[in-house]
């Protein structure tokens, strides 16, 4: 099974649907809307004048939002269709940014540069089979003193039933691969041309252990009680965020992690030539 080929075809077919969707609201972005979550902006801190790489950037909206805040941005994605859209949006908005088509594991070679910040946004890690190699890739991209910032769906949410979020229906340690045949993407009911995707689950321990093994120092791991789509039918929406209603027990829906590179040599794996 070639997970990369299947997933690339699946994401290539999502691109035109996502560009026209209310979920991504590309026209709103062009008018000045930022897709970044408020906790991300606060936790990353000042980016003006800093070099930032966004791995698995899709349409590039988050990357370009960091550029609007003053970062010197490079976005990378394995979908040429997505990168073409990212470049077009950047050009139309007059935002300076670099976008490169490559698999995330090839990022050090494809980018050939190092960065102050490596950013990975929500919904990225599920597409990667090997977190150890991913973390080594991140470490190879970071300048000494730079940091990784990751915001991601909490793996606990994958355990529970979709309706109430109260019943454990899945195995937390079933890492996959999980092959899905699904005609739609998450933005609506338009039918995808390529409907097969391959996903991989990672525990919170998997993520932290991979980051630490790559030589990065974890500065914080924070868990958040909100998400940004109706993951469970029992969630209530307010101001674009979805939370459990008052009075019921809660659990984390998203987590964020920041980890700093040291001043020593970077891991040998995937160093830029």
From TrEMBL:
For this entry, list what GO says about its biological process: methylation
Q: Does the keyword Transferase apply?
A: yes
Looking at the record's lineage, which domain of life comes first?
Bacteria
Listed GO MF terms: methyltransferase activity
The UniProt record lists the keyword Methyltransferase = yes
UniProt keyword terms in alphabetical order: Methyltransferase, Transferase
> Domain Methyltransferase type spans what residues?
55-148
Write down what this protein is called: Methyltransferase domain-containing protein
């Amino acid at each position: 099974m070639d997970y990369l080929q299947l997933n690339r075809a699946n994401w290539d077919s999502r691109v035109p649907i996502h560009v026209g969707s209310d979920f991504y609201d590309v026209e709103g972005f062009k008018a000045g809307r930022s897709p970044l979550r408020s906790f991300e902006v606060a936790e990353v801190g000042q980016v003006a004048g800093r070099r930032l790489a966004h791995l698995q950037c899709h349409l590039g909206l988050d990357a370009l939002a960091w550029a609007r805040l003053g970062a010197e941005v490079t976005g990378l994605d394995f979908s040429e269709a997505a990168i073409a859209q990212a470049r077009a949006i950047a050009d139309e908005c007059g935002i300076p940014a670099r976008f490169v088509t490559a698999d995330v594991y090839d990022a050090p070679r494809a980018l050939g540069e190092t960065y102050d910040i490596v950013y990975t946004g929500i919904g990225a890690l599920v597409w990667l089979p090997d977190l150890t190699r991913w973390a080594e890739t991140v470490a190879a991209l970071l300048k000494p003193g730079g940091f990784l910032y990751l915001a991601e769906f909490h793996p606990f949410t994958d355990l529970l039933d979709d309706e109430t979020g109260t019943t454990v229906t899945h195995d937390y340690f079933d890492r996959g691969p999980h092959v899905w045949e699904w005609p739609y993407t998450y933005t609506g009911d338009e039918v995808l041309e390529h409907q097969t995707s391959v996903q991989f689950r990672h525990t919170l321990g998997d993520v932290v252990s991979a980051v630490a093994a790559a030589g990065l120092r974890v500065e914080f791991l924070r868990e958040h009680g909100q998400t940004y789509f109706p993951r469970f039918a029992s969630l209530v929406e307010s101001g674009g965020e979805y939370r459990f209603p008052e009075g019921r027990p809660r659990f984390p829906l998203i987590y964020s992690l920041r980890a700093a590179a040291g001043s020593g040599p970077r891991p040998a794996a995937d160093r830029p030539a």
